[in-house]
Amino acid sequence: MSITLPLIQRPLISYRGRFAPSPSGLLHFGSLVTALASYLDAKHQNGTWLVRIEDIDPPREQRGATHYILKTLEAYGMYWDEDILYQSQQTELYNDVLGYLAEQKLSYRCNCTRADIKSLGGIYQGHCKDLAITDKNSSIRLLNSTEIYQYTDIIQGNVKCDKALAAEDFTLFRKDGLFAYQLAVVVDDIYQGISHIIRGCDLLEPTARQLSFFDTTGCQPPQYGHVPLVVTPQGYKLSKQNKASAIDTKKPQKTLLQALNFLGQSPPKELISSSVDYIMQWAIKHWSTDKVARKNQIMLTNR
Ligand code: GLU
Ligand code: ZN
Q1: 276 CB under 6 A from ligand 1?
Q2: pTM of the predicted model, to two decimals?
Q3: Is the CB–ligand 1 distance for residue 21 below 6 Å?
Q4: Domain 16-293's class?
Q5: CA-CA distances (angstroms) from residue 14 to 49, 210, 265?
Q6: How many Å apart are CA 166 and CA 154, to the nearest integer?
Q7: Residues 6 or more apart whose Cβ sits within 8 Å of residue 222
Q8: In what order do the strands lie in the sheet with 16-19?
Q9: Any idea where the domains of the chain sit in the sequence?
Q10: For 38-63, how does the pLDDT look when each residue is reduced to its tens digit (9 = 90+)?
Q11: What is the number of the ligand closest to the CA of 199?
């Protein structure tokens, strides 16, 4: 069934990509790599590249992070083409979409705790589906009617998803009163007419859910491409949580070339003495997703 949400999707005829960081910390090498991949893919195809700040989880946000992320993008020659969208400004739209889904019986309220779900094997089994819960202190789940088990990824090829995860009625609104990532990300990708999403492999699995949600809305999904995650020699993802060090904005050339190498683009060594804008021009011209490794993660060695 295809429905019309209170959300008009623009036709996805031109390339529109985006980088959508959460301001939970500073930009580190891993997030630089994903920003760069989405930027180069957009610019190589003469597309529009947007920045969206995913600030819907205040307890996890760090003061000043947004400002620093934007300054870093500029220092690395990545300039966004339209006004930045802040998810914290999208509350009305998210509520409209939730209201609409409830009205259409495409979602339901659930008051299971994390512990309840864990005791049932960790995957939510639709326990509250027919309970008609109205308590406002409950979460809201999508009635998942299109289970996506696999999809074609621009970089990773055929991606298979865990069946139980794919079939789960996942959360759109959290019990603690916050909008869930899955809701906000899909609503805004529709709202902004995003045609291509290039991001890190940590989001390979959630993509299946996002595709299910797109199907529920009747809107055309974007194409997805996932670049390998940067992991530490111990196998941990570089993340804001494990305090990966912020990247240098004073002399970005070296880090930029490392990021390009990480993405398999093999930039000529001489570029080290060129300006950032010149390196970026080279990178845009020579960008190819075929050169990016078809791996979920790559270890970061000598930086
Ligand atoms: N905001 C998410 C993050 O920083 C990424 C969202 C996305 O690219 O879909 O992990
Ligand atoms: Zn429940």
Answers
A1: no
A2: 0.95
A3: yes
A4: alpha beta
A5: 11, 21, 25
A6: 20
A7: 12, 189, 194, 195, 196, 197
A8: 16-19, 48-53, 85-86
A9: 16-293
A10: 999 999 999 999 999 999 999 999 99
A11: 1
